[in-house]
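Suppose a colleague, Dr. K., hands you the sequence of a protein chain of 125 amino acids and asks what its three-dimensional shape might be. Before reaching for any lab equipment, you can write down a predicted structure in token form. Begin with the sequence itself:
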Amino acid sequence: TASGFDLNRLNLLVAVLEKRTKLKLADKDIYINVVGGLKLSDPAADLAVAMAIASASVGRSLSDQAVVFGEVGLGGEVRSAQGWHTRIKEAKKLGFTYAIAPKTHQDSFIKGVGDMRQALIDYLQ
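The predicted structure, expressed as tokens, is then:
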């Protein structure tokens, strides 16, 4: 179930998570709620949503010092996000210490990942 997030996009992310990371999600109830009544349609939210689902599934958390963004492709690859410089600037202002984002973005603040599997292995504690 998704509130404020496209249900088709959620289903796609769950399918990619199952296929590319071997997580077993078919028997799980998955709920996504975007706070404040907002509608989130930016594909750059894909990686954050996927990592939140994986985190809940395996019982391991993501650091509260990290901000996460990147579009997730059907092959599990993490793609570039438009306006990433602005995202980094805002994340720094908000006190985050690093970003988990596509490795194509060159910035010392970013811990780059090439695909979802790598992101989950490297950054879920």
